[in-house]
Amino acid sequence: MALGAHWEWRGFGRGSPELRDSFESLEELFPPLHVVDRYIWIPGSNVNVKLRKGIQDGLKFKRLLGTDGDLERWLEDPAELYDFPLEAAAWEKLGVELHAVGLDPPRVPPGPSDLQATLECLETVDERITIVEVHKDRRARLFRGPQGPVAVEWTRITQPETVLSVGIESWTEAAVGAIRQVILDLRLEAEAIRPMSYLAATGIWARGGLISG
């Protein structure tokens, strides 16, 4: 949700009715959204790369900057959000990420690429790359605590499996403490939710596994 550098806790699993009630009690941040993300799974890379259709359409890069226990600091640089149709600069950026892990960059298609043309081009790249299509129904609310505002995301994933993702993000100076307070208040440690980033989840799906399995 947050652009720029921010701290994030995320988990996947099943949420209790009590957790849902706690989420519903928070202030709405944005109304329900349906999005389809196609993650470009690049083995060996710590960059979350995806093609999105539904909101902020285009190619997005999300970079892991560091960790603090089960919290992660990510960077979503607005300069690395490329709208459809993709221009040559977007393909060049993707080529850099592939080259960094020893994979050949894609051949830049002639002219701008819409989503379909982009997917067709990626199918011709190294067979170790996997496109994982994820369907999401997303909602977000705002937790206003003593250490600053925290965004709480509730996402029902229906493909490649039915599973809940809960994300907690903060971009303030006290982000780590603020997020940990929300984890305590929502009693997330007692929930059947496994801390995991989308990057890690995509790796499971890319290998044919299930988070809930």
Tell me about this structure.
Helix content is 23%, strand content 44%. By secondary structure, the protein is an alpha+beta fold. Strands 1-5-4-3-2-7-8-9 form an eight-stranded antiparallel β-barrel.
Write the layout of secondary structure elements.
Elements: E1 4-14, H1 17-24, E2 27-41, E3 47-53, E4 58-68, E5 71-76, E6 81-83, H2 88-100, H3 115-122, E7 130-145, E8 148-159, E9 163-170, H4 175-185, E10 192-195, H5 198-206
Antiparallel strand pairs: 1-5, 1-9, 1-10, 2-3, 2-7, 3-4, 4-5, 4-6, 7-8, 8-9
Percent of sequence in beta strands: 35-45%
Measured between the Cα atoms of the first and last residue, the distance is 27 Å
Number of helices: 5
CATH top level class name: Mainly Beta
Average pLDDT number: 93
Low-confidence stretches: none
Number of strands: 10
CATH architecture: Beta Barrel
CA-based shape:
globular
Q: How many domains make up the 3D coordinates? A: 1
Main-sheet strand order equals: 1-5-4-3-2-7-8-9
The ordered H/E elements are EHEEEEEHHEEEHEH
Name the CATH superfamily classification: Hypothetical Protein Pfu-838710-001
Give the structure's gist in a few sentences.
The chain is of the alpha+beta class. It has helices at 17-24, 88-100, 115-122, 175-185, 198-206, and strands at residues 4-14, 27-41, 47-53, 58-68, 71-76, 81-83, 130-145, 148-159, 163-170, 192-195. Helices cover 23% and strands 44% of the residues.
